[in-house]
Amino acid sequence: MFQHVEQYAGDPILGLMDKFASDSRNDIKVNLGVGVYYTEDGKLPVLECVKAAEAQIANPPRPRGYLPMDGLKGYQQACQNLLLGKDSQAVVEGRVATIATLGGSGALKIGAEFIHQWFPAAKCYVSNPTWGNHISIFEGSGIEVGKYPYYDAATIGVKFDEMCEFFKTLNENDVVLLHPCCHNPTGVDLSDEQWDIVLDIIKDKKLIPFMDIAYQGFGENMESDAHAIRRAVELGLPVFISNSFSKNLSLYGERVGGLSVVAPSQDEACRVLGQLKSTVRRIYSSPPAHGGAVVDTVMNDEVLFEQWLGEVYEMRDRIRDMRQKLHDLLSAKLPERDFSYFIKQRGMFSFTGLTTEQVVRLREEFAVYMVENGRMCIAGLNNKNIEYVANAMAEVLK
Ligand code: LMR
């Protein structure tokens, strides 16, 4: 019956979590694979603002009815405030359609389905490289996916001129998938000036920017990490934005994300919202209630919101600290090599330039887990494991 069903090769990131869990070298193993923040004690944190919100939600216990297809109003508002700014003209004019989604992946999926239905000729272009699931999600929705030049291994920077020239060759209504901050997997971002240039080209060529922001707050801060989004809106572009609270609220398993579409008019935003809801209905009906309530509570309570910002910046700063320490340790061990990329890159990830063979050696010989494309999740490092990791890396780099 199922002989024709092909074996699943496994996911390069989530599959690593399974491998890591079943590795019996418990005393030494280090997980630098999946994009998850761990504390200095190697634990997945429950943020204090989340504990406080959950205490509020639990007392008295709330009934668990279905949420609306597009989620809670306070949740939608929270997404809009964070992404577009509190005084956004587009929000005031009612031109933003926002829905709560099943994580950032759910936002991308609903967005991709919408694009396939309403812009059937559009192709989607992703950065080379990008988060692998971008390609799977868009292709899975029947959209042809291409790649635009991005990462430059020679300079550990962006192939900026090539990227701009490439965008000039695209067709009207083609989608360009952009990472406004903390590029996944490279950690290499555009400067604000470069964003402004790219967005002018996007406007000129009438392309559709799809901004995927899963690490807001981990780059510089909540506001400047949203520069590209806000600039695109200022330029009057129609913008798709997928966002995630998985990382910045440490609510990975609650599946809390959002999709916002900024339209030229209120009437169009209303049509878009209706179609997004219809897409939600035919795929999963409505978003989860508990995670939605936590996000709504934290984001719409002034005290909890301030507490949240502090907790995000604490995570950001610990990651920066680990970047500096790993840089210093490796530079001392292999002085002939340049490890400055650890300090220059932003967010949870560092593209180390390690080859697949070296990554496999790290895993098999040292129980240090990284994605095979050489991506390291810096947020898995701490003062107890960093020397061990640096020694292991130095060993495979020799
Ligand atoms: C990652 O890139 O590791 C995270 O976004 C988790 C995932 O779903 O891949």
From TrEMBL:
EC number annotated for this UniProt entry: 2.6.1.-
Cofactor(s) required for function per UniProt: pyridoxal 5'-phosphate
Keyword Membrane among record annotations: no
Alphabetical list of CDD domains matching this protein: AAT_like
Classification via Gene3D superfamilies: Aspartate Aminotransferase, domain 1 (3.90.1150.10), Type I PLP-dependent aspartate aminotransferase-like (Major domain) (3.40.640.10)
InterPro entries assigned: Aminotransferase_I/II_large, Asp_trans, NHTrfase_class1_PyrdxlP-BS, PyrdxlP-dep_Trfase, PyrdxlP-dep_Trfase_major, PyrdxlP-dep_Trfase_small
Keywords from the UniProt entry: Aminotransferase, Pyridoxal phosphate, Transferase
Domain Aminotransferase class I/classII large: 28-392
UniProt xrefs under PROSITE patterns: AA_TRANSFER_CLASS_1 (PS00105)
EC category: transferase
Superkingdom per UniProt: Bacteria
Pfam families with a match to the protein in the record: Aminotran_1_2 (PF00155)
Family note: Belongs to the class-I pyridoxal-phosphate-dependent aminotransferase family.
Assembly behavior: Homodimer.
Protein name: Aminotransferase
